[in-house]
Q: What sequence folds into this?
């Protein structure tokens, strides 16, 4: 009887922990894509994929968290370089994939407006859309973003302005 009671308690604890982790995972606005999924991101429709990125690897949640800390500032900086008529600032779901730049591991972030993509845990490639989607590279060594590109629109690339 006591063993059954202990087993029930352990099962109950494990189910509670599993449910809590599931809720936390669902609340995140980002996901890590595996190597096969990452390759899909190299074929963007309305923006160039960064030159010099090759080979894939799977980043950890702590590496993505480092990029997440710097991302809001990078988005604001990128928005300041485009024409004001294009400067919408949607809330983004973010997909992270690991690529190599030479021998250096970097993260590529593919971001998509929350209102556009409901299947954002799988690779998303959107044509046009302006600031509703962007891609950028996070260098884990320098803790900074580069190669930041918003999608173009039906007329081509979004015009850049001096900040």
A:
């Amino acid at each position: 009887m006591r063993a059954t009671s202990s087993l029930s308690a352990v099962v109950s604890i494990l189910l509670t922990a599993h449910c809590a982790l599931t809720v936390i995972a669902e609340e995140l606005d980002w996901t890590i894509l595996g190597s096969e999924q990452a390759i899909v991101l190299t074929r963007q429709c309305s923006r160039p994929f960064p030159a010099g990125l090759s080979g894939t690897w799977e980043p950890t949640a702590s590496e993505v968290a480092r990029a997440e800390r710097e991302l809001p500032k990078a988005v604001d900086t990128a928005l300041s370089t485009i024409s004001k008529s294009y400067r919408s600032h949607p809330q983004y779901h973010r997909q992270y994939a690991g690529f190599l730049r030479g021998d250096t591991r970097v993260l590529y972030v593919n971001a998509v407006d929350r209102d556009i993509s409901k299947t954002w845990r799988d690779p998303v490639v959107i044509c046009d859309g302006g600031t509703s989607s962007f891609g950028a590279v996070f260098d884990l060594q320098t803790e900074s973003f580069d190669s930041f590109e918003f999608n173009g629109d039906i007329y081509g690339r979004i015009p850049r302005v001096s900040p």
User: Anything to note?
Assistant: The radius of gyration is 19 Å. The first strand starts at residue 30 and ends at 32.
